[in-house]
């Protein structure tokens, strides 16, 4: 899979992260683009099969293939080939991103708010930390907090669709939405307080998404988060490019 093919894929599947990768230095783009394409592939793989066992087997394939990259080059495969070209054996460190998707494959709702937070940390949070590492920024409290806030907000926005797939909350009442929004705001506040510990170079990959405030405000009222418009997305990314402000 060439860089142009990955860009075409992300244009459809994840245009915000595509823009984030393109805002990063050119030397980091290959790694970031392949990382974000992997994230999309893992999310789709976990939901591609109706039967949980079949979905789990597909996710397990990714876990095994990613782990094996520590020892050897992958067999012919578009995305694994792109990961190997960009990351080499270091791509094996991305296997936990696949492991976290086993929950999606199992088609089980979350029994608690804490379980949603753990899932957010292991998926979107870990993804943000890996992306920051590409830019030379090591894991830190600020990165973990920003990743948690962003992942919780993204999950709240996706919750209506997830609920229909059996991947939402066991108790999807307004109190649960309010509690998740509160945890997201707390995480964002922690990241903002620690922003001076994060190099400016990491700004492109720390973007929390478009319409975060609106999404959290809706959840605090017990309502589903609205989807941002294309205009709002373009405006938010333009502000990020101009100001470098990633914190909420």
Mean pLDDT level: 95
Query: What Rg do the Cα atoms give?
Result: 17 Å
Which class of secondary structure composition applies to the elements? mainly alpha
What's the end-to-end separation, in Å?
A: 35 Å
Strand content: under 5%
The unreliable regions are none
Order of helices and strands: HHHHHHHHHHHH
The helix content, as a percent range, equals 55-70%
Number of spatially distinct domains: 2
Question: Largest sheet at a glance?
Answer: none
How many beta-strand elements?
0
Backbone shape = globular
Tally of separate helices: 12
Pfam families: SQS_PSY
Protein name: Phytoene synthase
Note the main attributes of this structure:
single chain; 248 residues; mainly alpha; 68% helix; 0% strand; Phytoene synthase; Squ/phyt_synthse; Isoprenoid_synthase_dom_sf
Q: How does this model look, in words?
A:
With 248 residues, this protein is mainly α. It has two domains: 1-107, no CATH class; 108-248, no CATH class. 68% of the residues lie in helices and 0% in strands. It has twelve helices and no strands. It has helices spanning 3-13, 15-23, 26-48, 52-68, 78-87, 95-99, 102-106, 113-134, 141-164, 174-193, 212-220, 230-243. Helix 9 (141-164) runs antiparallel to helix 10 (174-193). The protein is globular. 40% of the residues are buried.
Write the layout of secondary structure elements.
Elements: H1 3-13, H2 15-23, H3 26-48, H4 52-68, H5 78-87, H6 95-99, H7 102-106, H8 113-134, H9 141-164, H10 174-193, H11 212-220, H12 230-243
Outline of the structure:
The chain is 68% helix and 0% strand.
